[in-house]
Amino acid sequence: MKRLSWEIILSGLFFVAIALYLLGKPSGEYHEGPIASNEPNAPKPPSTPSSVHVIDIESLKELAVLKELESNEDGDQAESLRKLKSLAHLIPSEARDEFLTEIDNVLKELSNGDIKINFDSDDQLIIVNRDYDNLKLDAWGETSPGVYTFMSEFDASDITEASITLPGGSITIVGTNENNARFTVQASGQISSKEDLTSKVRTISNIGKDRAIFSLETDEYSSDNLNIQLQATLYIPENMELSTSTKSGHIEVTNIIGDQVYETGGGHIKLNRVKGDIIAISGGGHVSAVEVSGDITMKSVGGHLTLKKCDGDATLDTKGGNIEIKDVKGEIISSTQGGNILIALSELMDDITAETSAGNIQIFIPSNSSAEIEIEASNSVELNGFSFSTFDGNKSKNKATGKLNNGGPDVIAFTKYGKVIITGNE
């Protein structure tokens, strides 16, 4: 199995997710843009080595460009990446700059080492490889000045469960349709030698008959003062139950099918194309999920929550951030103590509950929706885009209860300091 440095994941003809991996260099922090104005400041997560950046691209019609890059697999790798940049005009403007930055970062890496690009259109993967020729598997090795790498490769064809636990640092997980798997950890920071690292950090890799357990451990008295940045990457078959936790880092996941639990004490969580019953909890960062099949619970103590395209029930709770929900088909329960809530649905199929202590609530549903309405706000409540004849109930400045189109799913919204606005869209 090839040892990877960067990976770009392409999914679908018209929805393509590109993920870039760089395992050989520490990088800056992952930042998620604000979802609404006047947002509170989320706690700043710690600096970590490089992480996966997943960018969704809509309406990718110029697949001929990708075919051309695939045919140039043995050619000029830098030129292939420059051609990949030609797809930038197809990317939504809010993601375009990040995509171009990632490509430029890979081009810089090409000038610093031997990196090979492989295109696999059947598996919808574009992989940029760096071979660690001198790295011994299942042991730490210095792969660049000040950066140490631990790598384990194994047959995961019978593995159905996996877990990763870190004392701190970021975790990246990617699911594929291959049977082989790879677990990689990078360490950088205040490390004087490999012996110094192994005396401070113990790496446990336990591959059983049907379960794989990976963890890093430190002495309890020194875990908060290590000054070592960790980045773990798990490349594993997509059909997998996962349990993942880190004390103070980001978690990024792409393309996993199975029940999943993600917990971080102080970083962001970013999920893309996941399926199963999912729990994602952050003690101080943003949590986002795109293309979810199944029920999902998202919680944060001090960050924003974003959920887009989910066909199951969704429970979102944050103590100090905004909530944005779009295109969810199941029941929605959302609450925040200090932010705005935005819910936009193309079809109202189940109950909605939205509550904030200090912020505005906006709910967009089709104008022909049938619903039981119960909304209350300190400033005002509004029903826009519905004809008077479709609403049967009582409405005042601060409260409205009644039925839209003879009733249907419950739409309940409360704010102590703000407005509640329900808008009907054609």
Protein architecture, described:
With 426 residues, this protein is mainly beta. The protein folds into two domains: 4-303, no CATH class; 337-425, no CATH class. Helix content is 10%, strand content 48%. The chain is built from four helices and 33 strands. It has helices at residues 63-71, 77-84, 93-110, 194-200, and strands at residues 4-9, 15-20, 53-58, 115-120, 125-130, 140-144, 147-155, 161-166, 170-176, 180-189, 202-207, 211-217, 228-237, 241-246, 251-257, 260-264, 269-275, 278-282, 287-293, 296-300, 305-310, 314-318, 323-328, 332-336, 341-344, 352-356, 361-366, 371-377, 380-384, 391-395, 399-404, 410-415, 419-425. The chain has a 14-stranded mixed β-sheet. A 14-stranded mixed β-sheet has the order 11-12-8-14-16-18-20-22-24-26-32-28-31-30. A three-stranded antiparallel β-sheet has the order 1-5-4. The longest helix has 18 residues, at 93-110. The N and C termini lie far apart (51 Å). Mean pLDDT is 78; it is low at 1-63.
Q: SSE layout and pairings?
A:
Elements: E1 4-9, E2 15-20, E3 53-58, H1 63-71, H2 77-84, H3 93-110, E4 115-120, E5 125-130, E6 140-144, E7 147-155, E8 161-166, E9 170-176, E10 180-189, H4 194-200, E11 202-207, E12 211-217, E13 228-237, E14 241-246, E15 251-257, E16 260-264, E17 269-275, E18 278-282, E19 287-293, E20 296-300, E21 305-310, E22 314-318, E23 323-328, E24 332-336, E25 341-344, E26 352-356, E27 361-366, E28 371-377, E29 380-384, E30 391-395, E31 399-404, E32 410-415, E33 419-425
Parallel strand pairs: 8-12, 8-14, 9-13, 9-15, 14-16, 15-17, 16-18, 17-19, 18-20, 19-21, 20-22, 21-23, 22-24, 23-25, 24-26, 25-27, 26-32, 27-33, 28-32, 29-33
Antiparallel strand pairs: 1-5, 2-3, 4-5, 6-7, 7-10, 10-13, 11-12, 28-31, 30-31
Helix pairs in contact: 2-3
